[in-house]
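BUG: 3D viewer hangs when loading the predicted structure for this chain

Environment: internal workstation, default settings.
Expected: structure renders.
Actual: progress bar stalls at 90%.

Input used:
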Amino acid sequence: MQVDIFEINSRKKEIVLALGPESSGNFSVYHEGKIYFYQTGMDLLDEKNFTLFKKSVLGFLRKEKIKPDIILTDLHPWYRTMVWGKELARKFKAKNIKVQHHIAHIFSAIGDRIIRNSKFLPGLLRDSKRAGKIRNSIFGVACDGTGYGLDGKIWGGEVFKFQISNFKIRNINRIGHLENQILIGGDLTVQEPARMLISVLSNFLEKGKVFGFVKKYYSHNAFEVIYNQLRDKFNCQETSSTARVLDAVSVLLGFSDNKRGEKHGPVFALEKNSTASYKLDPKIILDQKEKKYILLTTPLFEFLLKNVKKNKRCLAATAQLYLAKGLYGIVKKYAIHNTYFAGGMANNRIMADYFALQGVYSSKKIPRGDAGLSFGQIVYYLHT
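Structure tokens produced before the viewer hung:
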């Protein structure tokens, strides 16, 4: 188990324990101006790993002879760390605070910049071109696979604006996201990415043509069951997930089969097989009801099918850049400074390189995906 200790300029007196996500076990503790960041690298969906994780957390608290006043957990109601965090809060008579998954990702990147510059939030918000002027907002783009949203939907391609007052976060606004698509069978879509392909293609193709693209993975009867499930919205969830979109692209272009393999396996295969991109301008609309900008992903698939006989490696790069350009396009409608890119897809070379060229900051030391989430939970709390 790897541990890093970071000094941070905060006057918070509470002892804070952050339990991170579920997929990549890590926890952090804030105590007397220091953040203790523990990475286990374990998949906590495995019962034995989760038992070891709990022993590691409790062992640290016993060794340091401390008990938490605040316990931070993910917002997802079914995460093991969330359930256990509620139990620990009762045990220690601590307050349990839930931090939305993608907000924690962004603050992981913000915290990374803090520890690399040895400054707290006020230092981060100074405009280098106008010394002494404090910006009143920061922006964050978070891209990953699954994160429980504040509206109960599954998020994963998000743009946030954080309002600043007296060096604290006073208001959080989700200003944009990817077009919501349907997870047919919920989490089963993660294991069978062709389900996501069925979902998106059904937006603009008739049933028979959709089947033609997935018949190598499903018998006609099996496809009928899945298609009817989508039609009836039975056990279906809306998602703005970046990874699910790229999963479907990877299956469509033939770079992955209808299985996940390793975490984000289809996305890795897509990135590995990417070359130069074709030109495709992102399509962004303003949802008048939500008052949010939406990057449409259905037009991306229409473009891929129209050009499917062309170089598939170029199409692979086109899909990834379409998402990066579109999400950054939403940020540009507000500002083009003080922006952070975080989440599991921040490890995607094509997307990360694009954001870097725009001057967007991504973590250098703290892991960009779920392996750095508990650190982000702590940094978020210290800013509230």
